[in-house]
Amino acid sequence: MTIDSIEVHIEKLAGIIPDGAAVFLRAPDKTFVIFIGSTEGEALARAIQGEETPRPLTHDLVRSILLGFDIEITRMVISQILEGTYCATLVLAQKPSGDHQYKNEVRIDTRPSDAFVLAARIGFPIHVSQEVLDQVKDVSDLISADNPLPDFPPLGDLRIADDLGTVDRSDLAEPSDGEPD
User: Fold this and answer.
1) What is the DSSP letter of 55?
2) Calpha distance 71→62 (Å, rounded)
3) 11, 61, 104, 156: which sits with the fewest CB atoms below 10 Å from its CB?
4) How many domains does the chain fold into?
C-alpha cells in the first residue's frame, strides 16, 4: 500500500503550557498545526535544542535500541485523521549487513508527538498524506512576522511557562472539508 505523501518540516513549537503545545508543520503550500501533550512538547523542545538529559528518557531508549540493532527510521507519515486524532506510521528498515543482502522494512503505528521527538533526535523526514493535507486548515498567517507566536521557553523555565498564552484550538484542530471558508 503506497500513500501519496508530501514532506513537511517542523516550523515552530509554541506554547508549552500544562495543556500542551502546538507543533506547526510547513508543507510547500500551507502550514498546519498539530496539538501535542505538554510532556511530549517538553521532550520535543529538548530534542530540537539538542539537550541531553542525565539519564535516558523513553525517546532516548528507543533511539538506543534502534542503533543497537542497526535499524533506521526512514520516514514518518501522518496518514489520516480519525475522529479529530492524527494517525501516523513510522517506516523502519534494518540495514543490510554481512551475508544479509535484503533490507527488511516494517511499518509501525505511532502517535505523531512521539515520532516528532524521534525525528528531532535522529533526523528522519516527516511526511503527510495528501488526504490529511487536504483536510487541515492553512495557518500560515499565524506564524508570519506580523503575528509572532511565543517561542518555547528555555528548558529551565518549562515549569513556569503559563505566561506564554494559548492558541484557540477550536478553529485549528478540526479537520476541514478542504473548501475555503
Assistant:
1) S
2) 11
3) 156
4) 1
Helix (H, G, I), strand (E, B) or coil at 21: strand
Residue range(s) defining the domain that contains residue 119: 5-163
| 55 is a domain residue | yes
pLDDT digit string, tens, across residues 106-155: 999 999 999 999 999 999 999 999 999 999 999 988 876 555 555 544 44
Q: Report the distance separating Cα 40 and Cα 115, nearest Å.
A: 10
> Which contacts qualify for 96-100: CB closer than 8 Å, 24 or more apart?
97/70
Residue type, 131: E
Whether residue 168 is contained in a domain is answered as: no
pTM: 0.75
Cα angle value 121/127/130 (rounded, 5°): 165
